[in-house]
């Protein structure tokens, strides 16, 4: 997705999947060389890197009330998504600059990670003019 939409991806460890070269290459197929992928050992590493770049940290969470469609995204935003099993820890949830949600039908718990990333990234790129243009 990162390669296809032209979006940098940061993976924050510890991950629940293997990030050694062979496993990543198999999952990333031939797009991996085109993806701007950074692996961080843990939250502290990621946070230090992000703070040096600046911009807002926008957390996608089921525990927010503001719809992502009502949010004005900025080009410098970093979108943060939680792990498939448990989302993000409470302190990271509380520390995000913005918490936003993808509205769902009452009684449903959450979308899966890949789907929520696709929806959030698409809307952020649409608003900031960053979506790739269709080939003419
Ligand atoms: C499978 S969900 C995590 C489920 C976990 N039990 C929870 O309640 O946080 C994985 C990630 O997808 C994102 N996500 C899933 N559904 C969402 C929604 N409706 N709105 C915003 N983010 C969502 C969040 O970043 C979440 O941490």
Automatic annotation (TrEMBL):
Gene Ontology terms, MF aspect: methyltransferase activity
Alphabetical UniProt keywords: Cytoplasm, Methyltransferase, S-adenosyl-L-methionine, Transferase, tRNA processing
Name used for this protein in its record: tRNA (Cytidine/uridine-2'-O-)-methyltransferase
Stored Pfam families: SpoU_methylase
InterPro entries assigned to the protein according to its UniProt record, in alphabetical order: Alpha/beta_knot_MTases, SpoU_MeTrfase, TrmL, tRNA_m1G_MTases_N
Taxonomic superkingdom: Bacteria
Residue ranges of every copy of the tRNA/rRNA methyltransferase SpoU type domain listed in the record: 3-119
Gene Ontology biological process terms from the UniProt entry: methylation
Top-level EC class: transferase
Documented EC number(s): 2.1.1.207
């Amino acid at each position: 997705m990162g390669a296809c939409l032209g979006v940098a991806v940061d993976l924050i460890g510890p991950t629940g999947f293997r990030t050694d070269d062979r496993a990543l290459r198999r999952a990333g197929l031939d797009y991996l060389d085109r993806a701007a992928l950074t692996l961080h050992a843990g939250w502290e590493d990621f946070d230090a890197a992000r703070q040096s770049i600046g911009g807002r940290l926008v957390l996608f969470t089921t525990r927010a009330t503001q719809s992502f469609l009502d949010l004005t995204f900025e080009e410098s935003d970093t979108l943060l998504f939680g792990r498939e099993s448990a989302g993000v820890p409470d302190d990271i949830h509380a520390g995000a600059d913005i918490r936003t949600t993808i509205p769902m039908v009452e009684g449903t718990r959450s979308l899966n990670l890949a789907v929520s990333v696709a929806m959030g990234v698409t809307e952020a790129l649409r608003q900031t003019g960053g979506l790739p243009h269709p080939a003419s």
